[in-house]
Amino acid sequence: MLLFLVLICWQIPHFLALAWIYRVDYEQAGFKMHTEGGDSTGMKVAILSIVYAVFGGIASILMWKYAPLGFVFGIGAIVLSFFFLYACITFLRNQDGKSAKLQLYASYAFLSGIFLLVFVNKQL
Questions:
Q1: CA–CA distance, 26 with 31 (Å, rounded to integer)
Q2: How far lies 121's CA from each of 23, 56, 58, 65, 74, in Å?
Q3: Which of 34, 53, 56, 121 has its CA 20 to 30 A from that of 14?
């Protein structure tokens, strides 16, 4: 259940970063996104991203507590969660394409890292 929560919380900031980066393309194609209309600054996208990154980080740390995962997973999950949150906060501060790409890449690192840590801890 916690892994499912991590996946749900991961996908929102990931998708919102993509929506911000390609907002013009989505608008031209007629897709309604959070980045369209009243959120031309990106504030709503950034705040939603931060909220979901926090809950995703909490879920990954709870996996450490409730799943038979070791110390390596716990430290790695904390580091990945803070990096993901840092990227989302950077997007809140700058609200530009460069920080949205950082958030996107941090989302890749977070999810890949969590799965890699689960695998490594199962091997140890």
A1: 5
A2: 39, 19, 19, 13, 10
A3: 121
| CA nearest to 56, candidates 77, 40, 36, 73 | 77
Task: Please say if the pLDDT value at position 102 is more than 80.
Answer: yes
Question: Token digits for 41?
Answer: 């600054």
Return the half-sphere exposure (C-beta side, CA atoms, 13 A cut-off) of residue 37: 8
pLDDT in tens, 23-74: 888 878 877 776 655 666 778 889 999 999 999 999 999 998 888 888 889 9
Give the model's pLDDT for residue 42: 78
Give the integer Cα–Cα distance in Å for 38 and 54: 24
- Please report, as a single letter, which amino acid is at residue 25: D
Backbone angles phi, psi at 71, to 5 degrees: -60, -40
Is the distance from CB of 40 to CB of 25 less than 8 angstroms? no
In the chain, the largest separation of any two C-alpha atoms, in whole Å, equals 50
How many residues are present in the chain?
Answer: 124
**Residue 98 is encoded by which pair of tokens?**
């460069």
Q: How is the chain split into domains, by residue range?
A: 2-123
